[in-house]
Amino acid sequence: MADTGADQLDDTIVSEPLDLVRLSLNERVFVKLKGDREIRGRLHAYDSHCNLVLSDVEETVYIMDDEDEDLKTIQKQSEMLFVRGDAVVLISPPTQS
Amino acid sequence: MLFFSFFKTLIDEQVIVELKNDMSVRGTLKSVDQFLNIKLDDVSVVDEVKYPHLSAVKNVFIRGSVVRYVHLPGAVVDTALLEDATRKEAASQASKMGGR
Amino acid sequence: MSNGTAESPFSPSAEKSEISSNNPSAFLSQITGAKVAVKLNSGVEYRGDLQCVDGYMNIALEQTEEYVDGVLKNQYGDVFIRGNNGMLVFCFRFVRKFGRYRRIMILNFLG
């Protein structure tokens, strides 16, 4: 029973939304977070809360300057990053975008 | 439970916890629980000038829900093992859902 | 009174042949494959083909376009949208009714 379950999981069929995330393991993904933040990095772990662990991470923070209507961006690098799931808005495998 | 177990393997490692209020705390990971609450020892606030009020604090307890990121040392994470554990966790979640 | 409810476009009988369930997540899984627009509380809108939905109302879309203030900002092949961001799901589906095509737009509002 457990074996058949594992076999089904090997399929590349997306039968529930988190399958999309599972198929992105060890791939570079794009993650959009609350607070105008975006992350690109290689996905190594996730759970049902969308907690994530990513490596070779590049974070972009967008800061809207109200005075001159300028959109400033801040880039940050991190070699290994845990992201708490409650801030996650969307996850996308960037290769086919 | 995946991330609880994962963080337990990182005990005694140097980490930087970035909070949702933008403050970052560097320290040694001393303990973690199922809510991913975190205890750090030998702490230092990354931006001392902006947050001087914690400069005398030696250890902190951080409620899991206020954490945005935890920056980890890349070398101590076995990524292949982590991916296997993630797949197993996903499979067990799926079989639970099927049982309902 | 009863007349009023029968006339209501949102009364269960109005679309009974099309939508047999009045449970939001069951409805969403019924319209998989349809072209949908998902509008988040932040105002960002995602349009794409609905792949699947789960109990948390996480959503997987295909061929997704991201619109901010009505302007196309991004395109993604696949996208996973976390369910607990308050969202509104529009279904663009054309159904034959009374001999003509009528567009139905179903609204589903979560926290």
TrEMBL record, chain A:
PANTHER family recorded: U6 SNRNA-ASSOCIATED SM-LIKE PROTEIN LSM3
SMART domains: Sm
Localization, UniProt: Nucleus
Primary role: Binds specifically to the 3'-terminal U-tract of U6 snRNA.
Keywords: mRNA processing, mRNA splicing, Nucleus, Ribonucleoprotein, RNA-binding, Spliceosome
MF terms (GO), sorted A to Z: chromatin binding; poly(U) RNA binding; telomerase RNA binding; U2 snRNA binding
PROSITE patterns: SM
Protein name per its UniProtKB record: LSM complex subunit LSM3
Oligomeric and partner information: LSm subunits form a heteromer with a doughnut shape.
InterPro entries (alphabetical): Lsm3, LSM_dom_sf, Sm, Sm-like_LSM3, Sm_dom_euk/arc
Family: Belongs to the snRNP Sm proteins family.
Record domain Sm: where: 16-97
Gene: LSM3
GO cellular component: chromosome, telomeric repeat region; Lsm1-7-Pat1 complex; nucleolus; P-body; sno(s)RNA-containing ribonucleoprotein complex; spliceosomal complex; U4/U6 x U5 tri-snRNP complex; U5 snRNP
Biological process, per Gene Ontology: deadenylation-dependent decapping of nuclear-transcribed mRNA; mRNA splicing, via spliceosome; rRNA processing; tRNA processing
One matching Pfam family: LSM
TrEMBL record, chain B:
Compartments in which it is found: Nucleus
GO cellular component, one term: nucleolus
Entry keywords, A to Z: mRNA processing, mRNA splicing, Nucleus, Ribonucleoprotein, RNA-binding, Spliceosome
SMART domains referenced in this protein's UniProt entry, alphabetically: Sm
Coiled coil: none
Residue stretches making up the Sm domain: 2-76
Keyword Isomerase carried by entry: no
GO molecular-function terms, A-Z: poly(U) RNA binding; U2 snRNA binding
InterPro entries cross-referenced by the UniProt entry: LSM_dom_sf (IPR010920), Sm (IPR047575), Sm_dom_euk/arc (IPR001163), U6_snRNA_Lsm2 (IPR016654)
Signal peptide bounds: none
Gene3D superfamilies registered for this protein in UniProt: 2.30.30.100
BP terms from Gene Ontology: deadenylation-dependent decapping of nuclear-transcribed mRNA; mRNA splicing, via spliceosome; rRNA processing; tRNA processing
Top-level taxonomic group: Eukaryota
Biological role: Component of LSm protein complexes, which are involved in RNA processing and may function in a chaperone-like manner.
Family stated for the protein in its record: Belongs to the snRNP Sm proteins family.
Protein name: LSM complex subunit LSm2
Automatic annotation (TrEMBL), chain C:
Main location: cytoplasm
Composition skew (Polar residues), residue ranges: 1-11
Entry-linked Gene3D superfamilies: 2.30.30.100
Cellular component terms per the entry's GO annotation: nucleolus; P-body; sno(s)RNA-containing ribonucleoprotein complex; spliceosomal complex; U4/U6 x U5 tri-snRNP complex; U6 snRNP
Keyword Metal-binding among UniProt keywords: no
UniProt keyword terms in alphabetical order: Cytoplasm, mRNA processing, mRNA splicing, Nucleus, Ribonucleoprotein, RNA-binding, rRNA processing, Spliceosome, tRNA processing
Any one of the GO BP annotations: mRNA splicing, via spliceosome
Pfam families attached to this UniProt entry: LSM
Subcellular location as annotated: Cytoplasm; Nucleus
Sm domain sequence ranges: 23-95
Origin: domain of life: Eukaryota
Region (Disordered): 1-21
GO molecular function: RNA binding
Family of the protein in this entry: Belongs to the snRNP Sm proteins family. SmF/LSm6 subfamily.
Protein name per its UniProtKB record: Sm domain-containing protein
Species of origin: Lipomyces starkeyi NRRL Y-11557
